[in-house]
Every structure is written in structure tokens, then in C-alpha cells.
Design goal:
2 domains; about 240 residues; Ferritin; mainly alpha; about 55% helix
């Protein structure tokens, strides 16, 4: 059952990425395209991660109707310091993925707004242990690139399609997924575009099948593992198979 669910989630992820690629075909080079997909996917992830964290705390305290995404920015600001201390970053409700996406189609300044949001997220982590992880995190998502279109309207149209594609991924709650959405998306994108970019996918990541085989071999005859040493740690594809 778990393997079937895993394949369904993987197929859904791949299908969505393929549809986004079709929407942006002819404008964004494949090698650049993967950066847009991964960056926007991460933006959605941290938005939902933060919202889920705050909501769970409020629900446990008894406020079952609380929804961080529906707060005003002024109300949310009161919790900025505590959230940065605990999570290492902060996102205002108006700058959450779901809220930016909701207004995206009618937003004539979408590209500028996204650029500001990305900078705000990165700067919120300054001075924390997460600073190095967030610094320059969204640099590869050039929302003002001519590759997205010759005019602001054309660029925004592509960004709307990108956000809708990422937003429509039926991934549910990330912590309940059986796949590593980011690792799997990265591997799929590498397979789609590595050869076209004059690169060999194997030079940049370990194919999932190889990772799983190595893990199985490592676990033969063992009921538990105390420590794992991965001297070639990169995208984190070497995980225990389910």
C-alpha cells in the first residue's frame, strides 16, 4: 500500500512538472526552468510549513478556527521575534505562497512583489543559525528575466502559470508524504534537461535506484542502524527505502 501511494505521489509530481514545462516551453531554457520550479516549490513549502506550525500551536491552545494565513500583517508582526527564534525565518501572512498566488492573476506588479517577498524571507533569517541556508536562496528565480517574456505583462503571465502549477500539486501535508518532493523533483528535472544542457545527470546526482540498492545492501542482516556515513552527501537522495 505504501509503495502504491509513493508511486502515485511521484507520478502526480512528475505530471505537474511536465505540465508547467509545457506552459513555459519556448521561453525558459530547461536548465534555468528547473531553478524556477525548485525555487517556487520551496517557497510553497516554507509557507505551508510556517503556517502549519503556527496553526497547530493555536489549535492545541483551544482556538480551532485560527488560521495564520488569514491574519493581518500587523497582527502577525507581534510574533515575528518568537517565530524567528524558533523557526529561523518569518513570512508575513500577505507574503505567504497561498495568498500571493490567490491575487497573482490580478496583480500587475506580481514580478516586483515576488522579488520583494523573496528578499524579505531571506533577510528575516539574518542573524540566525539559518542565515547561511537562506542567503541568496531565491537568486536563481529571476522574476524580471526577459526569458519569461519581453514585457512585464508577459513575465507575470508566466509567473502566474508557474505558481498555479506548483500550487495545484496534490501533495497534502508534506510531513505525511511518502516521497521527498524536493529530491524527487530535482532528479526528474535533471533527467529532463541534463542532456540538453550538455551535462550528464549522473555527474550531479545519484539515481534513486542506485541509492535504494546501496541502502538495501547496507541493511542486509541488520534489524537497526545506529549511524550512517555518506561521504558523497549532496541532494540527500540516499535514504532508507520504505
Amino acid at each position: 500500500m505504501a509503495n502504491n501511494r509513493k508511486e502515485q505521489e511521484r507520478a502526480e509530481l512528475h505530471r505537474t512538472i511536465w505540465n508547467i514545462a509545457n506552459d513555459l516551453r519556448g521561453s525558459v531554457d530547461g536548465w534555468d526552468f528547473k531553478q524556477y520550479v525548485l525555487g517556487m516549490l520551496f517557497y510553497r513549502y516554507i509557507s505551508e510549513n510556517l503556517t502549519g506550525y503556527i496553526n497547530a500551536d493555536e489549535w492545541e491552545a483551544g482556538d480551532k478556527n485560527f488560521d495564520y494565513a488569514k491574519l493581518s500583517d500587523k497582527e502577525a508582526e507581534q510574533a515575528r521575534k518568537d517565530l524567528i527564534d524558533t523557526k529561523g525565518f518569518f513570512i508575513l501572512p500577505s507574503e505567504l505562497f497561498e495568498n500571493v498566488r490567490q491575487r497573482a492573476a490580478q496583480n500587475e506588479n506580481l514580478n516586483e512583489n515576488l522579488e520583494r517577498v523573496f528578499k524579505n524571507i531571506e533577510s528575516s533569517a539574518q542573524g540566525t543559525s539559518n542565515e547561511k541556508n537562506f542567503k541568496g536562496l531565491f537568486d536563481d528565480i529571476d522574476v524580471n528575466s526577459n526569458k519569461l517574456g519581453g514585457t512585464v505583462a508577459q513575465r507575470n503571465d508566466k509567473l502566474v502559470k508557474l505558481m498555479n502549477g506548483i500550487g495545484e500539486m496534490k501533495l497534502g501535508d508534506y510531513k505525511d508524504n511518502t516521497i521527498d518532493a524536493f529530491g524527487d523533483a530535482y532528479e526528474f528535472l535533471m533527467g529532463m534537461y541534463a542532456s540538453n544542457a550538455g551535462k550528464s545527470g549522473g555527474e550531479y546526482y545519484t539515481p534513486q535506484e542506485v541509492s535504494e540498492l546501496l541502502t538495501y545492501l547496507t541493511l542486509v542482516g541488520k534489524t537497526e542502524v545506529n549511524k550512517v556515513y555518506d561521504p558523497a552527501c549532496g541532494s540527500g537522495s540516499l535514504t532508507c527505502p520504505r
